[in-house]
Specification:
This protein is about 35% helix and about 15% strand. By secondary structure, the protein is of the alpha/beta class. Strand 3, helix 3 and strand 4 form a beta-alpha-beta unit. The two termini are about 30 Å apart.
């Protein structure tokens, strides 16, 4: 069935005019990082077929072996990423006072955001600021648990755009690569990747009590931490490495076209593989 192109000149949900790229006769398809993003592309560009959009979720490099002995002391919980509204600091700042025997470590954030959140957080929250990849790998190896408390509304750094529908936290895949047991909120994208009580503990979105309960449960159960960590790392190695993602994309598109159109803030240009 031929899809109608009557709205091909109208701006899409994503701010790109459909006729610029997606209406070209030699357009082979595109890659989306989630099923939710694929659905929104199909809604915005109804002449595209489902088969033209490959879902290839984000990925990360396998964790290198880092010799960082676990120091004795409290359970250490990590959050790595931006501190924009909705990313999760609202939850961490509320949960930390409920779990005074746990250390919360925050890697990332601008100086402005760190200054703001330090005023709102308990003494058991430690801010590391921007951390390079080599140092971050060492930090990961010293943590016991990771959290991904992104909420149902997530803003960009200018605080004007809600990206929750399409957000794909790369730190999730980094946590997975390091075999960290993860506590996450119940969001559609994360449900595409993680399974409750098998590869993560999934709690209702923005539920502070449930978040504290999951962290309390994990902190007191070394066997569960090891089980979830091993399962999530095995899934990562099987499905979410950068090499696996590249091979998946090339297998889908390499035989169809040697030249692709690259959309960037500077315009649309051909890029030859």
């Amino acid at each position: 069935m031929t899809r109608s192109r009557s709205n091909q000149n109208a701006p899409s949900t994503f701010g790109l005019p459909g006729h610029e790229v997606y209406n070209r006769p030699n357009f082979p398809g595109l890659v989306a990082i989630s099923e939710a993003l694929k659905r929104d592309f199909l809604a915005s560009f109804p002449w595209l077929s489902s088969g033209q959009i490959l879902v290839a979720r984000d990925a990360a490099a396998p964790a290198a072996d880092v010799d960082t002995p676990r120091r004795p002391g409290p359970i250490r919980v990590d959050y790595s990423g931006h501190l924009y509204p909705g990313k999760g600091m609202e939850i961490i700042s509320a949960v930390a006072p409920m779990l005074p025997d746990i250390e919360f470590h925050v890697a990332g954030g601008t100086d402005r955001d760190i200054t703001q959140w330090k005023k709102l957080c308990a003494a058991n929250v430690c801010f590391h600021g921007h951390v390079g990849q080599e140092m971050l790998a060492k930090l990961y190896s010293s943590f016991d648990i990771a959290v991904a408390p992104a909420q149902s509304i997530v803003h960009t750094d200018d605080r004007t755009v809600d990206i929750a529908r399409w957000t794909s936290p790369l730190t999730i895949f980094e946590y997975m690569s390091h075999g960290l047991p993860i506590v996450v909120f119940d969001l559609p994208f994360l449900r595409e990747i993680l399974e409750d009580n098998t590869t993560a503990l999934i709690v209702p979105s923005a539920d502070v009590s449930a978040s504290a309960g999951a962290l309390r449960r994990l902190s007191g159960d070394a066997v569960l931490r090891a089980k979830l960590g091993a399962a999530v790392k095995a899934q990562f190695l099987a499905q979410h490495t950068l090499e696996t993602r590249v091979r998946t994309i090339l297998a889908r598109f390499a035989d169809e076209a040697e030249t692709y159109m690259v959309v960037s803030p500077d315009g649309i240009e051909p890029s030859t593989l």
